[in-house]
Amino acid sequence: MSSPYYPPNSCTSNPNQELAEEIIQTTSGALSVFGSFRIIYDVLSQHYASKASNNNKITTDPYQRIMLGLSFFDLSHSFFDSFMGTWMTPRETGWLMAAGNQATCTAQGFFTALGFMGCLVSTNFFCELDFLLNLIS
User: Fold this and answer.
1) Residue 85: inside a domain, yes or no?
2) Residues 71-102: b if buried by 16+ CB within 10 A, e if exposed
3) pTM across the whole model
4) Is residue 55 part of a domain?
5) What is the C-alpha separation between 65 and 50, in angstroms, rounded?
6) Is residue 3 one of the residues assigned to a domain?
7) Residue 24: which domain range?
8) pLDDT 10s per residue in the chain (137 long)?
9) Domain total in the chain
């Protein structure tokens, strides 16, 4: 049974619990976005610094490039799923902090799925490709 202040499609029946979940999700999403951005910055700055000093020779190793791809997709997933949370959800749903419309909800779903599937695909594909190339050489 829902309280008179929360609609029946709310995730919890306790307003304080819903607010706590939203704060924790947004905080952890912001930390994940910062961490992913920092990894992207470190790999790219190392890549461009070594490229400038070694006459355009790339000196980043495959694992750094794999982390670059993973961090890019994690940045997308963390920002749109965890950090934005319910902000992009249509206001009509009555969810806590919902301020979007159907178009923003669709965009959030697309970028969340892109980030999640990108992490899975890039992890498996690039790690297996690196392993295979190490076996061949």
Assistant:
1) yes
2) bbbbbbbbbbbbbbbbbbbbeeeebbbbebee
3) 0.75
4) yes
5) 14
6) no
7) 15-136
8) 444 555 555 566 677 888 888 899 899 999 999 999 999 999 998 888 877 777 666 677 878 888 888 899 999 989 998 888 888 888 888 788 888 899 999 999 999 999 888 888 877 777 788 788 888 87
9) 1
